[in-house]
């Protein structure tokens, strides 16, 4: 198994632009999590899905952030419009009941 | 409610010295506890889980339900142990995960 796959690995964009981060979970996993990691706040849970359904999005910072999971093998996290304070590493992780989470390599986002 | 607490943001020890990274949790029911490690600019990787009761890279962690703690220990720290360590809790059938704020461990040569 290739593990959790995230793309792109790095994204540099200008303030105001739309950013889309992608995640392919491990096949067979029914839970998917999006986290944001910064030096100041550490690892923050943004949203998680169970069986493609968003269960808890209370961590999504504001309306500029949205996440979708159209099927069991794909999820996106979109920021529109992006702002410099959104610069962070965004991790996707997947799991299934009782098993540990498996993390992707992350997307390092820089908004200038 | 804060479910996982890691009181130390930074921890430095000398090579060969014992190291203990603290983790306390708050959860009703029977949670599962994990330690994850993140080496510089890499993804988080599972280090160990309490139900396995195993030692990985010389690290062990014992779940103390009375003290609601899951401290990570290693008797002799190595330079390659320098990393960020996250304590995590899984509840409700494993579909909820809560992470602590992490402890950055530096092992001084």
Helix count, DSSP H or I runs of 4 or more residues of chain B: 0
> Approximately what portion of the residues of chain B adopt beta-strand conformation?
35-45%
Shape of chain A: globular
Identify low-pLDDT runs of chain B.
Answer: none
Pick out the low-confidence regions of chain A: none
Main beta sheet strand tally, sense and closure of chain B: 6 strands, mixed
Alpha carbon gap, first and last residue of chain A: 36 Å
Largest interface, counted with CB-CB under 8 A?
A-B, 25 and 21 residues
* Mean pLDDT over the residues of chain A: 93
How are helices and strands ordered from N to C of chain B? EEEEEEEEEEE
Q: Provide the structure class of chain A.
A: mainly beta
Order of helices and strands of chain A: EEEEEEEEEEE
User: What is the rounded Rg of chain B?
Assistant: 13 Å
Largest sheet of chain A: 7 strands, mixed
Task: Please estimate the helix content of chain A.
Answer: under 10%
Structural class of chain B: mainly beta
- Strand tally of chain A, please? 11
Strand content of chain A: over 45%
Can you give a write-up of this model?
The complex is a heterodimer of chains A (112) and B (109). In chain A, 0% of the residues lie in helices and 55% in strands. In chain A, the strands form 2 sheets. In chain A, strands 2, 4, 5, 6, 9, 10 and 11 form a 7-stranded mixed beta sheet that branches. A 4-stranded antiparallel beta sheet of chain A has the order 1-3-8-7, with no helix packed on it. In chain A, strand 5 and strand 6 form a beta hairpin. Chain A is built from no helices and 11 strands. By secondary structure, chain A is mainly beta. Chain A has strands at 5-7, 10-13, 19-24, 31-38, 42-50, 53-56, 65-71, 74-79, 88-95, 102-103, 107-111. Chain A is globular and about 40 Å long. Chain B is 0% helix and 44% strand. Chain B has strands at residues 4-5, 10-14, 19-21, 24-25, 32-38, 45-49, 60-61, 72-74, 83-91, 96-99, 103-108. The model of chain B has no long low-confidence stretch (mean pLDDT 91). The termini of chain B are far apart. Chain B is mainly β and 109 residues long. At the A-B interface, strand 4, strand 5, strand 9 and strand 10 of A face strand 5, strand 6, strand 9 and strand 10 of B.
């Amino acid at each position: 198994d290739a593990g959790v796959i995230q793309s792109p690995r790095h994204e540099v964009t200008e303030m105001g632009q739309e950013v889309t981060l992608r995640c392919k979970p491990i096949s067979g996993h029914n839970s998917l999590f999006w986290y944001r990691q910064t030096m100041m706040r550490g690892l923050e849970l943004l949203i998680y899905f169970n069986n493609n359904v968003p269960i808890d999005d209370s961590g999504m910072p504001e309306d500029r952030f949205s996440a979708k999971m159209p099927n069991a093998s794909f999820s996106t996290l979109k920021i529109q419009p992006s702002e410099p304070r959104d610069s962070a590493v965004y991790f996707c992780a997947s799991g299934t009941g009782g098993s540990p989470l498996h993390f992707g390599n992350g997307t390092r986002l820089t908004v200038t | 409610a804060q479910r996982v607490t890691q009181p130390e943001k930074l921890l430095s020890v000398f090579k060969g010295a014992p190291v203990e990274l603290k983790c306390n949790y708050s959860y009703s029911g029977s949670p599962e506890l994990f330690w994850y490690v993140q080496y510089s600019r890499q993804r988080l990787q599972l280090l160990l889980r309490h139900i396995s009761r195993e030692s990985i890279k010389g690290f062990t962690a014992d779940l103390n339900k009375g003290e609601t703690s899951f401290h990570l220990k290693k008797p002799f720290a190595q330079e390659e142990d320098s990393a960020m360590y996250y304590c995590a809790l899984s509840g409700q059938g494993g579909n909820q995960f809560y992470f602590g704020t992490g402890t950055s461990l530096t092992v001084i040569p």
